[in-house]
Amino acid sequence: MDYEMMCGIEIHQQLDTKKLFCSCDTVLCDEGFGAHYRKLRPTTSEMGEIDRAALAQHGRHMDFRYQCCQGASCLVDLDEEPPHDVNKEAMDVSLVFSAMLDADITDEIHFMRKIVVDGSNTSGFQRTALVSTGGEVEVNGRKISILSVCLEEDAARKIETKGNEVTYRLDRLGFPLIEVATGPDMRTPEEVMEVAMRLGSLLRATKKVKRGIGTIREDLNISIPSGARIEIKGVQELKMLPDFVRNEVNRQKMLLEVKEILGKRGVKPAAAETVDATDIFEDCPSKVVTSAIKSKGVVLAVKLPGFAGVMNGDSGRLRLGAEMAQRARAHGVKGIFHSDELPNYGIDIEYVDALKEFLGMSSPEDAFVICAAPEATAREALVAAVERANEALEGIPEETRDPLPDGTTKYSRPLPGAARMYPETDVPPTLVTEEKVAEIKASMPEFPEEIERRLVEQYGINSQQAYQMLRESNYELFEKLAGAYRALSSVAATTLTNTYSELDREGITAADIPDRAMIEIFDMLSHNKFAKEALPDIIREVSKGSSPQAAVSKLGLEAVEEDEAAKIVASIVREREEFVRSKGIEAVGPLMGPVMAALRGKIDGKAANEILAKEISKLIG
C-alpha cells in the first residue's frame, strides 16, 4: 500500500530522579487522601491570545479534585508554594541525552508555562524548558532530524470521572520528563517504530530513566498530501505505532474523498439550527430516546443538505458520522444518530420518514442528525457535530486525537498553537557553560551499539541475541542475571529473547514481570530447584501474579533426585519393553517424548537423555 506521508514523533520519557521542582520521591501510590478542589480557566499568552485547545477544554465545564500522597506530593504540587530550584540530576540527564544526539545545547535554559486546563495540572499550566535543538539520529542508514530536546514536568494521574468532575492523584505530577521531538522525516509506518526504538535505546543508555508501563509515551504527528497535521497523543505500546500511522493515513484519505464528493455536489455549510422533534419520537422504542424523554430531555434535530451517504456510506468506509459523533461526545452526550445509519437502534423507518417530512427534506442527498439529551446539552452537542460536518467541506481539521486499543483514534481537542506558551517567572534560568558541555562530552555513556559489542564479548552470547535485547529493553536485566549466575548466561539470553517472544505471541507480556522476580527464578534454577526446560511454564505462571516459589509448587515442577528420575524412566522403558527390544538403543529418540512429559521441568533434558540411554542399555543387555 502507498503510504505517501510525513510523520514526526515526540517521545516523553520519565527520569528516575526526584521530582523536577521539589524533593518528593517519584513513586506512584495505590491510595491518595484529601480532595482539594479546583476550577481552571484559560489565560492569555504574552501576545494577548487565548489558545484554541485550552478554550475548547474550558468549554467542557469540568471541575477537578486532587488527592495527595504521603512523600510523593507536597505544596508545590498543589500550587500553594512556589517551585524549588530545578532538580540538578534531571537537568544533567537532559544535557547528556542532548550530547548523545549531537544537538546544540542552549546557553541559558529558560522554563516556560504551557497552558493546560484539562485538570492534569493544578496550576493550569505545565512547566517546560528547551534544552537543545538541531540534533540527529541515524536509523537504517537514514538520518532523522531532531528538532528539540525539552525538560518538563509530568502531569497528574486521572483516577476517575463522575459527571462533570474529574479526580486526579498528585503522585505523578512533577515527575521529570525528557521530551525529544523529531522532524517530520519518517516515510513509512515501520520506520516510525524503528526511530522510536532507537531513541528509546539512547534514553535508556543514560541509566537514569524509569522503566515499565506508562514511563514512556509517544506522540505522533502525521500528515499526508492535501491533508493536515494530526497529533496522536499518548501511545504507550511501541509495537502499535505502525498501526496508528496506517489507520491515520487511511482516515485522512477517507476524509479527502468525502471532501471531493461534497465538492462535486456543490454542498454549502449547513446552518446549526436545531429544531425540537421530541413529539415525533414520543412513542419511539429506542432505549436512548425513551431514557432521554423520561428524564425530561428532548430530541433535537438538524438538517444537513447534501451530506447523505458520506456519514456512513460505501459499505461503512466513508465515516464522517463517526467524526461528528466524537465531537458531540466532547460536550457530554453518549452519542448522536444520523440518517445514514437509520433505521436502526430502535428507531424504525416510520420515525425516519416522519422526521424527513418535518425537516422538509426533498432531495435524496439531504441528511439529518439528531441528539436525545437534556436540551442545553443536546444543542451544544449538535452544534459541535454540525461544525465538524462543515469542516469536511474544507478538508481535514488539525486536531489532537487519543489512541484506542485497536490502533484507531478518537477526537480529543483542537491542535494547540503558539498561544499556549508564556514565560515562567518563578524559576530562574540555568546557565550552561562551555566547561559544563565539555565535561558532559568527556564522560558520555555507552551507546547501544557499544553495549551490543560488549555483551557479545563479555558473556559469549551471539550478536542477534544482544541486538534483540537492546531493541526490547532487556539487556539491563540480562546483565543482572548473567552477572549473578555466569553459568546461566546462555539460558538467560535465550529466555529474554526466544521465550519472551513466544509468550508475547500468546498475549503474555513477560517484560512486565519485575526484575526481582526474574532474579529469584534464576536463583532457584542455579540451585537446581527445577530444570531449565520449566522456565517458560514458570514465567507464564509468575506473569499471572504468582511468586516464583509458588509457581514451581503449583505446577509440580520441583526438581527430583537422579535416583527418583531413574525409577520413573525405568518404568516407562518397561511399559514399552517389546518396542525397546526391537529398536535397541535407537529407542532413545522415540522415548524421549514420554520421558520429558513425565519429567519436564523436574530434570535437565540432557540428564534425562543419559538416564534413558542407561535404562535401555540395562534392558537389552
Can you characterise this structure?
Helix 3 runs antiparallel to helix 4, helix 12 (475-484) runs antiparallel to helix 13 (489-505) and helix 19 crosses helix 20 (605-620). Strands 1, 4, 6, 7, 8, 11, 12, 13, 18, 19 and 20 form an eleven-stranded mixed sheet that branches. The protein has 20 helices and 21 strands. Strand 12 and strand 13 (230-235) form a beta hairpin. It folds into four domains: 6-262, no CATH class; 268-392, 2-Layer Sandwich (Gyrase A, domain 2), CATH 3.30.1360.30; 448-554, no CATH class; 562-620. 41% of the residues are buried. The termini are far apart. The protein is an alpha+beta fold. The chain is globular. Helices cover 39% and strands 20% of the residues.
Give me a quick take on this structure:
The chain has 621 residues and is α+β, with helices and mostly antiparallel strands. 39% of the residues lie in helices and 20% in strands. The protein is globular.
Topology, pairings included?
Elements: E1 6-14, E2 33-38, H1 52-58, E3 63-68, H2 88-100, E4 104-105, E5 108-109, E6 111-115, E7 125-139, E8 142-153, E9 157-162, E10 165-169, E11 176-182, H3 189-205, E12 216-223, E13 230-235, H4 241-265, E14 275-276, H5 287-294, E15 298-304, H6 320-329, E16 337-338, H7 349-359, E17 367-373, H8 375-391, E18 399-403, E19 409-414, E20 421-423, E21 430-431, H9 434-442, H10 448-459, H11 463-471, H12 475-484, H13 489-505, H14 515-526, H15 535-542, H16 548-554, H17 562-575, H18 577-583, H19 588-599, H20 605-620
Parallel strand pairs: 3-10, 13-18
Antiparallel strand pairs: 1-11, 1-12, 2-3, 4-7, 5-21, 6-7, 6-20, 7-8, 8-11, 9-10, 12-13, 14-15, 15-17, 16-17, 18-19
Helix pairs in contact: 3-4, 6-8, 10-11, 11-13, 12-13, 17-19, 17-20, 19-20
